[in-house]
Amino acid sequence: MSNARVVVFNDTHGWHSAQLTEALADLNIETVLIDLAECRIDTRSPTGMVIPQFEATLPDAVLVRGIAPGSLEQITLRMDVLHTFAELGVPVLNPAHAIELTVDKARTSLRLHLANIPSPQTWACESRDQALQIAREEFAKGFSLVVKPLFGCQGKGIQRLDELAQLDNLSVVGEAYYLQHYVAPAETGCWQDWRLMVVNGEVIAAMTRRSNHWITNFAQGASCFASTVTHEMAQLAIRATAAVEAPYAGVDLIQDPQGQFSVLEVNSVPAWKGLYQATGIDIAARLAAMVASHIQQTRQVSFPEHAS
């Protein structure tokens, strides 16, 4: 693809950026690595933005690999830039609205619920009294709960509650209480879940994550194995990705002791190093092909006389 330049946004560019740069180069697409925080809004510019290495021009596409932590105001400005790219006709993958629907776990849970996609029973509130009452009621029914940061990843900050005595020490980030039913493993003592990578409505790779602990994230030391998936699992992942309006996503599934699958999380900025190591599948190449396809579609809309 001639004269195409793609921005990959991340605050730290490492293995994933190198993989994407190589895969895009194979399609004759130049990659520019930028931190989203380096961009600024500037209404003296025709686009209203100043993007490092682009002066008054725009990239042909944007691939969001990461958004650094920051204040509400900083994150808002970075999302403003992503929204503006899309409004100017630049393909953004994943788009800002999909990131907003997934970085906030409560929004993801609501989307899954409204789409009738199986997911653990969930509560989110600001009141400690409400959270404690929910916990007491669920404990009385025989359930355990998992408390997660509303904004969090890689299994960090997750707490499991099994009894009332633990409520005295319950602490949450930002006074926001996000609680879910704990899903017991299908096989006692063997905790596992599945990560499925969905690209353009297709599951392109999947792995099982196993641990001797109930937190099964790769970043927390879980072992990863290549996995085949059933039609039910694939459809759950595809539907979950569509529910958050993401062209691609990493979807986490879990199976309960009754054999039923449900969606734990949907990640619109998924890492895939563990998935690549487990399966050998060139995920970066599939993402690069997706980006190239979006660029081609945009060019055909802009210059329909050149469309084949």
From TrEMBL:
Which Gene3D superfamilies does the UniProt record give? 3.40.50.20, ATP-grasp fold, B domain
Regions that span the bilayer: none
Q: Does the keyword Manganese apply?
A: yes
State any GO CC term.
cytoplasm
One Pfam entry for this protein is RimK
Instruction: Provide a Gene Ontology MF annotation, just one.
Output: ligase activity, forming carbon-nitrogen bonds
The superkingdom listed in its UniProt entry is Bacteria
| Entry-linked InterPro entries | ATP-grasp, ATP-grasp_RimK-type, Rp_bS6_RimK/Lys_biosynth_LsyX
Q: Which keywords label this protein?
A: ATP-binding, Manganese, Metal-binding, Nucleotide-binding
NCBIfam families of this UniProt entry?
rimK_fam (TIGR00768)
- According to UniProt, the name of this protein is S6 modification enzyme RimK
Its lineage reads: Bacteria, Pseudomonadati, Pseudomonadota, Gammaproteobacteria, Thiotrichales
